[in-house]
């Protein structure tokens, strides 16, 4: 039988049917513990719900199919997933990551470097040799990248990064939160692990915190991450797992609409007299556009940023004048958001002070354009 398309897999949640009732929507499993039989053996291989809740299975199997990986694990949040992967780096080893990236993950890396004798080198994505120069052969244990990079949306060539990392004996981890598997599959490009803050595009409705990690191989690092999850207990509640799967079923159509809206907005505002730059990999003028076309096969996503003329105050005042865009943290929901990232990230931020980050939702694009026009 022909492999199902990504859109079909998502819409049917991997053709998930409840085996007990035939229901097309899976049940919510609230039990925390499971009984043994008269031989004191586990009845269905489950002992305790902390990392064995039946509600995780459909999501993890769906992500394996979407990412074309070997195994997936759910976590209580994107940061819980990120922390578990980063905590698999042994003390005394070396970690490489971009200077500009999701600041929560970078703050955790700085904490590790300070407390666990882990070397940390942050490289400049704009420098073609930046990643290769940051790696220390035999010492670098993990290379961490995003593509596109949050919130400036430079594009990193995942296949090239995998080649460089593997040549030095390091693992490549890709935080692909802004490029879900409807458009990018990092494992097929050579990554070892892919991480998603499922709170964002996967859930898509700003109503559930979740994270998920998928691996290309069930190797020693994967077993270490599984032990970290089980021991730390950073797992999803049963209702949250149900909400996440429900949200994932509409990912394909939500992402298509958000991507279309974002591209239309980027093209409209590119060259606007109030703006220094529009940062969006779907623009042909974007330096990473050709790489993005190879890696992002079904849309360039709903994330774009603009750099205003007039500095930080101009950016903040523009955000205040917006009426349709909601000033809030996060991304990937059905509603459009705006955020002045430098204010949020604080002292360690290297985000330009005149940058506004937009998460473009599924509203009428004409109304979104009109709102930003009046604010500018």
Short description:
The chain is built from 13 helices and twelve strands.
What this model shows, in words?
With 376 residues, the chain is of the alpha/beta class. 35% of the residues lie in helices and 15% in strands. It has 2 domains: 6-248, Aspartate Aminotransferase, domain 2 (3-Layer(aba) Sandwich); 251-375, Alpha-Beta Complex (Aspartate Aminotransferase, domain 1), CATH 3.90.1150.10. It is built from 13 helices and 12 strands. The strands form 2 sheets. It has a 7-stranded mixed beta sheet, sandwiched between helices. Strands 8-9-12-11-10 form a 5-stranded mixed beta sheet.
Write the layout of secondary structure elements.
Elements: H1 6-11, H2 57-67, E1 71-75, H3 78-86, E2 94-98, H4 103-115, E3 119-123, H5 130-134, E4 140-146, H6 158-167, E5 171-175, E6 193-197, E7 211-215, H7 220-232, H8 238-248, H9 251-269, E8 275-279, H10 289-295, E9 303-308, H11 311-321, E10 326-327, E11 337-339, H12 341-345, E12 355-359, H13 365-375
Parallel strand pairs: 2-3, 2-4, 4-5, 5-6, 10-11
Antiparallel strand pairs: 1-7, 6-7, 8-9, 9-12, 11-12
Helix pairs in contact: 3-4
Based on the model shown, name its key terms.
Aspartate Aminotransferase, domain 2, 5-stranded mixed beta sheet, single chain, Aspartate Aminotransferase, domain 1, 7-stranded mixed beta sheet, 376 residues, 13 helices, alpha/beta
N to C succession of SSEs: HHEHEHEHEHEEEHHHEHEHEEHEH
How would you state the average pLDDT, rounded? 94
Strand tally, please?
12
CATH topology of the largest domain: Aspartate Aminotransferase, domain 2
Q: Unreliable segments (pLDDT under 50, ≥5 consecutive)? A: none
Count of separate DSSP helical elements: 13
Q: Numbering strands along the chain, what is their spatial order in the largest sheet?
A: 1-7-6-5-4-2-3
Structural class: alpha/beta
Largest sheet: 7 strands, mixed
The Cα radius of gyration reads: 21 Å
Number of domains: 2
Net shape: globular
